[in-house]
Design goal:
Strand content: 15-25%
Structural class: alpha/beta
Order of helices and strands: EEHEHHEEEHEHEH
Largest sheet: 4 strands, parallel
Shape: globular
CATH superfamily: Thiamin diphosphate (ThDP)-binding fold, Pyr/PP domains
Number of strands: 8
CATH topology: Rossmann fold
Oligomer: single chain
CATH architecture: 3-Layer(aba) Sandwich
CATH class: Alpha Beta
Helix content: 25-40%
């Protein structure tokens, strides 16, 4: 069963079995290699990208990750652990992705560019990347996962096997 999620004026329709993992690169890259017929979306913050930057070259140069669509939400800080600056807002992340072998890379700074970028990701040759520049901070009512990591793994394993 598919679910719709609203992001500003954008509606994303996704399968309800997400795989929550930190870092996101390593397991999702392995899934992309093992399931080449499935689209794999990696959603990273700029801090996570900074900490796991080496995997970008694996994604871009392996020739095995053409199904990866990489979204980086860049607020310039490690928001979830104290808002220490990453300085990633000063880095040209799309250029870095292209230098690492990504086929397509773009940046969005407003709602129209986000919508266009998400649409372009869906139709572009991968691996592809969309950087979305945002301000630091989170909503006060931001929900937390309601299932355990083990429940997530079991549900995701079942999803991959079907």
């Amino acid at each position: 069963m598919m679910q719709d999620f609203r992001l500003g004026g954008i509606t994303l329709t996704v399968h309800p079995i997400p795989f929550h993992s930190i870092p996101t690169h390593t397991p999702q890259t392995s899934i992309a290699i093992g399931k080449p017929s499935r689209g794999v979306y990696i959603i990273d913050g700029d801090g996570a990208l900074l900490m796991h930057m080496g995997n970008m070259s694996r994604i871009g140069t392996s020739g095995l990750c053409n199904n990866i669509r990489h979204i980086v939400i860049n607020n310039g800080v490690h928001d979830s652990v104290g808002q220490q600056e990453t300085k990633m807002h000063l880095v040209d992340i799309p250029a870095m992705a292209l230098a690492n072998g990504y086929k397509t890379a773009m940046r969005a700074t407003n709602e129209d560019e986000i919508i266009g970028g998400i649409n372009a990701l869906a139709t572009s040759e991968g691996p592809s990347l969309l950087e979305i520049l945002v301000k630091p901070g989170a909503r006060k009512d931001l929900g937390r996962p309601t299932t355990s990591p083990l429940e997530n793994v079991d549900a995701f394993r079942d999803f991959l096997n079907h």
